[in-house]
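Protocol check, entry for the methods section draft. Step 1: assemble the input record (protein sequence plus ligand SMILES). Step 2: submit for complex structure prediction. Step 3: store the structure tokens unaltered in the notebook. Ligand used here: adenosine-5'-diphosphate. Step 1 record:
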Amino acid sequence: MSDAATPAISCRHLWQVFGPNAKAELVSALAAHGRDGNAAAAELRAKGLIPAVQDVSFDVRPGELFVIMGLSGSGKSTLVRCLSRLLDVTAGDVRIQGEDIATASKARLIELRRKKLGMVFQHFGLFPHMSVLDNVAYPLRVQGIGRAQRQAKAREVIELVGLGGRESAFPRNLSGGQRQRVGIARSLVGDCEVWFLDEPFSALDPLIRRQLQDEFLQIRAKLNTTIVFITHDIAEALKLADRIAIMRDGKVIQIGTPSQIVLNPVDDYVREFARDVAKGRHARVDSVMKPAHGTLAEGPSLREGMTLDAALAACVAAQAPVAVRDGAGAVVGQIDPADLVSALHVEET
Amino acid sequence: MSALSEAPPAARPQLGPGTWAALVTLLAGALCLIFAPRLPWLTAWPADWVLLDTKSLSAWLEAALRFIRPAARLVSALLAYPMGWANALFLATPWPLFIGIVTAIGWLIGGAAMASLGFLGLVFVLISGYWAEGMSTLALVAVSVPVALLAGLAIGLLANEVPRVKGAVQVLLDVMQTVPTFAYLTPLVLLFGFGPVVGLIASAIYAAPPMARNVILGFERVETEIKEAAIMSGATRFQQLFQVEIPAAGRQIMVGFNQCLMAALSMVIIAAVIGGFNDIGWEVLLTMRKALFGQSLLAGLVIVAFAVVIDRMSGALAFERARHDRRVALAILGVALLATLLVWWRHPDPEAFRLLTPLAEAVDKGLGAFTASQGATLDALKNNAMFYGLLPLRIGLDDSVLPFTWGFQWTAWMSGAWFAVAALAGLALALSGRVTAGIALTIGLGIIETGIAQLPWPFVLIGAGALGHVAGGRRLALLSVVLLLAILVSGLWDRALLSLYLCTASVVACVLVGGALGLASAVSPTVWRVVRPVCDMLQTIPLFVFLIPVLMFFQIGEFSAFLAICAYAVVPMIRYTRHGLVETPPEMVEAATAAGATTWQMLRDVRAPWAAPTILLGLNQTILYAFSMLVIAALIGTTDLGQSIFLALGQADIGLGVSAGAAMAILAFIADRLVQGFARGQREALGL
Ligand SMILES: Nc1ncnc2c1ncn2[C@@H]1O[C@H](COP(=O)(O)OP(=O)(O)O)[C@@H](O)[C@H]1O
Ligand SMILES: [Mg+2]
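Step 3, stored output:
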């Protein structure tokens, strides 16, 4: 692992344009509009090209669970395929643990994918002619690892995703949830350091989806990977994310923690997403906390990391600012109950 | 002028591209009609306008071939070895053992059903007395198929790996599909010399494209995410291909294998016309020529038996997944070995089991008696179809209506009346709002008066261009005209029109009969239960075999050719019509039912429009089938391009063979593109 200062993933001014002669068209469009991304994208569209990812820049910290959320067609899959270089980027810079992916050689890419990267697909992408065990062991097989050894490792991972006993089944005999468990197991068998998941649970029924989300969080707790997780479901994003990037029409329009997204949507588009969300359950007190000053009234006190709902219940009767304490009981800030209430009603403004 | 320009533009009649095309064609037809009496070159392309006659083409090609001939002869000498080995192996294998092996393979592939199919099929071959000939045919197939498979796989891989050549490869495969089977043979004969090796190479060339097509299709159908998963697993390109993409495309590739086998078998049998090899196709030809129809039928049935066994077994390979107990297969082999020791030891010659000869003779005798007693009826059937159907279509009412057949003589006055009626009928339709249909009707009636074989060439060119413009835009229009011009300047125009006529006649018949059968099959599952196995069978039988029954009853001639073509080409029309009608989305059917539509209304208003693109694809297949049978039908008496191709083969006239083959391919190609274009338009109109 590289040191904590280097982002696990970093991309700068990333563009992916589909259509004939995309690279040259993009360069000339950018030059014509003085590097104004929006104007350049509009020109490309007018010419019949598809700017699926436009001028995207962000960093993902090591160990972070970074969720990319947006409606269908907003360019999420394209973006994640640029990060894993399933697509050659049209312009911009992608670095994984500091290493430039866009210019990596074929051999190096294979090496990276064997050692560092893992990916889970929306429609599972299982090999129809291989059993569960062979599917999961495949990333080891391509490395030339012996049969016994790779199958032993695959069995471990299959156990981890809760599919023990189904090793000899074929994908066509599995349910959707089971198939995605196989997909997850296969992506984990190589001990990846950066894990891409492209809408892994979108094709599943709500009940199964929630169950897999919970298991996903459990698995994540055991691992030490950086995760880029794609979804179109705001509830899923809020439930899982450390930080969320919201995409619209190929652009990232807001990046922030779940609380920031819910409480301070950057525009109507994001507000529309946040509208149906029970904010109190996703935003945390930290997001409305102010530094403590003066003396705080005795009475209820709040814990760092509490959700707004819980905080409101705890200090519903309070009139004056209430202290927020950390795990050890030390005061880390204060909250004005009025702020709490207005935060929860932000959408009505 | 100013009054006109002030009129609101919507008030002017809006002519769609179809109407324009029809108008232009109509105008061209009318002009040709008017000037034809004074300008004979409008109907008959003058001989001194032929720019590249077949003789000079022969000379050119001969000169070109001289350079590759040594290499070709080397290849043919090299191929003679594996062919000799295969032949020796197949003929030397004791027949009980061979039957046992096929039965055991059948068991492994498809259990008891396939095992008994294999067993019965081969036992039939044995008792028919054509074991040795059959084995020779199989030996040819056995050598040509691996070559075709490898070539097809390589072409498919190339198209997949090098996206830049993919388009070109697909065009090439399309073109190869339209080249008539016999047309391959003449250049090959000149390159490789007479003999079985030519059959082998022709069959490999003919069988490789289906494999290549299916390989390409298979790769395309592998889900992107599966390919991406292989990449993200860190597989090299080689590993991706051989560990993931090829196995994931396995089923489609097996379909390709099945089609490849069938094409190879079909071509091996067709290649028998060049002779030099004692195989079953040759046997059919020989007995047909001697009018020994019982024997001919028997030999034909041997081909059918091979075709059915090979088709069903290789098909099961693609679609069945059940595993069958290997011990049973071993047991079957054991029994076969035992039988070899016990029976073959004493009767090594399969000829000893020729049990069906009396049957063949009985068929001959019965047939003789039947034609003697029913000859008048058969002749009447044939003559009526010729005089009142085929001939008018070929040479037009003006030449075919004679006192001797119709009871009166067609006069110029009648022509005038006919055209007037045609114009009025068209006008009536046009006034009722269906302008294009009206013009088309007029044109159609005009063609019947003139006859397809006597159509003026400018009319055909302009008509094809206009159709091409509607179906596929300017490019297709231009391509059609240029390609037809090529036929004109090669001096094969008359024969091309004859091919066009025979093809049109058969396709029209197929559309009527096949459409009706398809409709009946869509409406009634009982009908489909009867029609379906017949269709399956007709599609499995190699083209050649179709000639036998029609010859038996109607002798050599155009009508027999017509029947053979129809029998072969009707199948896609039936299948696609039914499929299109049956596969209407259930929610559409439910919506119509909820709206209170009767069965008939549902068919007319909901199912038929939905099925239109599918039916058009069926028509397309029917046309291609008709063209491919056209060449085979030349064996039993036609005078069109097919006959030229066949003659060229006999005389080793490469110029004639190549240009007639190309002309036939051009006709098929244009027809294919036109109908596909219309089908695409229909699909787009339905938003598919
Ligand atoms: N290979 C491609 N060629 C052309 N356009 C594409 C291609 N892949 C994606 N697109 C277009 O890019 C846009 C973003 O697609 P995608 O990344 O799949 O969106 P999402 O995953 O957010 O649903 C869509 O408009 C899609 O049509
Ligand atoms: Mg997507």
